[in-house]
Design a protein that fits this description.
- This protein has 261 residues and is α/β, with parallel strands linked by helices.
- Helix content is 34%, strand content 23%.
- It has a single domain, classed as Ribonuclease Z/Hydroxyacylglutathione hydrolase-like (Metallo-beta-lactamase, Chain A), CATH 3.60.15.10.
- It is built from nine helices and 14 strands.
- It is globular, with a radius of gyration of 18 Å.
- The protein binds zinc ion (ZN).
Length: 261
Amino acid sequence: MSSTPALYVQALPCFTDNYIWLLETAAGRWVVDPGDAAPVLAVLAAGGPPLLGVLVTHRHADHIGGIPALLARHPVPVLGPAEAGNVISELLAGGESLTLPGLGRVEVIPVGAHTHGHLAYHLPDAGMLFCGDTLFSAGCGRLFDGTADDLQAALTRINALPAATRIYPTHEYTAANLRFAAVVEPANEDIRAHQLQVAAWRAKNSPSLPTTLALERLINPFLRVEQPSVVTAVRHHGEAEMSSTRDTLAALRAWKDIFAG
Ligand SMILES: [Zn+2]
């Protein structure tokens, strides 16, 4: 039995393809990665529970740019990594286990790869993961700072969570990622089926997110680098010698970087 109150999550679209995640309980609200203040301020102005705090995954402007304007109206704690600079009021390094008002237990997972200080927030009682630009549906974040070893470590930590975990990435990249996934694994029926599902959602302007870890294990090539189908495709595409899963992951990421689908 869980004592966690009901937690509702709403996607607030902003910019071209970002989502700000708004978490709401009866006690109050949190936002994850408010790159733009306007959509958050609009929701708060319409009434409802107060804003209790902000969670930041990493330093990129499309994740933190709205924080000063948000704080001007709603002075709340901002939790996140040092790399995000002086918008952070409560520094986190990864590895912390927090209890936050309204949210209950929050495990801070270090997933430095896209950026070196990147954090993910796992709510074990709600079965949710807010992972910024680390894992996307059917893809993963580009490596600005990290190496393939860092990416492997980050994805391994995420993949260790329960299969039913709902995953909330920050970008609507699913359709494009699935086009790449279908080239890597043309015989993967789960990828084909999910392409149809995502097309139907997007035609109604509905988010393709959240996803689940169980689904990502079926359709996301970056979580499937031990599958013979993925290893064979990467080997045929590149000339790099691959002697490990890490090598496959590195070559797959490099292939995706130049993929024009
Ligand atoms: Zn980013």
